[in-house]
Amino acid sequence: MDAQSVKTSTNVPLTSQGPDAAKKIVGRKRGIVTDTLGIILAVSIAAAGLSDNAIGKELLDQTKSAYPTISKTWVDTGFKNALIEHGATLGIDVEVVSRKAETRGFHVVKRRWVVERSLGWLMLYRRLTRDYETLPASSQAMIQIASINNLTKRITDETTPTWRGTY
User: Fold this and answer.
1) DSSP strand E in 36-92: where?
2) What does the pLDDT look like over 140-151, one tens digit per residue?
3) By CB count within 10 A, which of 3, 35, 73, 160 is most buried?
């Protein structure tokens, strides 16, 4: 599970966007839950000012209702004890995975790279680099469409033609 803040375009109503003080972004926050393969199981869209815990609780509720056998999820340190307690009431073990403090820069963090990779895949879609949708439900649908497109490419082993390396 992870959350990502993105800027919004000018047509997004002020009521559905807000400031994310940590990232200094005015926009929306999108939260996703993936399985161990990176397939998106649940999506939540809210104003960026909403805490990760609030989005995480909604994501846990969505995931548990759609996939009742789920028993564990990994989160980063942005999620706090309130989410762990909410997960315990649902029967989901929420494990906080911390970065290694002694390692500077990028490094792979246990199980966290899967959801980070899924967020990276979403950013390859132009409509998702910035939130252009007026309604949060439309933004959620765009994420699901991008996820379906990504999954079909993975299943069919299709690659997008590129101009790189054609010389």
Assistant:
1) 40-47, 72-75
2) 999 999 999 988
3) 3
